[in-house]
Design a protein that fits this description.
Blueprint: E1 3-5, E2 20-23, E3 26-32, E4 35-36, E5 41-42, H1 47-64, E6 72-79, H2 85-95, E7 102-107, E8 117-124
Parallel strand pairs: 6-7
Antiparallel strand pairs: 1-2, 2-3, 3-8, 4-5, 6-8
Length: 125
């Protein structure tokens, strides 16, 4: 049965979608942009600060659903500019020290609210 996951520790959805959906031991986390859930604004700074916020948002949703980064099997990283890849990759890698998930990274034309990065995540128990 499909279960909607919501936590106040991650940004509220800014459209007709859920933070995450869990079904059959799989967790599908919607693309997270670097919104600070306390201020509902994009964090200040560059790609490093924005990637940290995105990963913190993902972690909050994982924890709310009873998962952790070790359960993540796939990530898709959307970047506003591939010039930011190396710095994003350094921050991202610090969250997956062992057995990192499969991943794709793409440059896209625009991201919501002018964000530099968005990451969607799939975890499995």
């Amino acid at each position: 049965m499909k279960k909607v996951i919501f936590t106040e520790n991650a940004p509220k959805a800014i459209g007709p979608y859920s933070q995450a959906i869990e079904i059959n031991g799989q967790l599908f986390i919607s693309g997270q942009v670097p919104i600070n859930p306390q201020t509902s604004k994009i964090v200040e700074g560059g790609i490093k600060e924005q990637t940290i916020q995105v990963m913190n948002n993902i972690e909050a949703i994982l924890l709310a659903a009873g998962y952790s980064f070790s359960d993540v099997v796939k990530s898709t990283c959307l970047l506003s500019d591939m010039k930011n890849f190396a710095e994003m990759n350094q921050v991202y890698g610090s969250y997956y020290v062992e057995n990192p998930p499969a991943r794709a990274a793409f440059a896209v034309r625009d991201l919501p609210l002018g964000a530099l990065i968005e990451i969607e995540t799939v975890a499995v128990k």
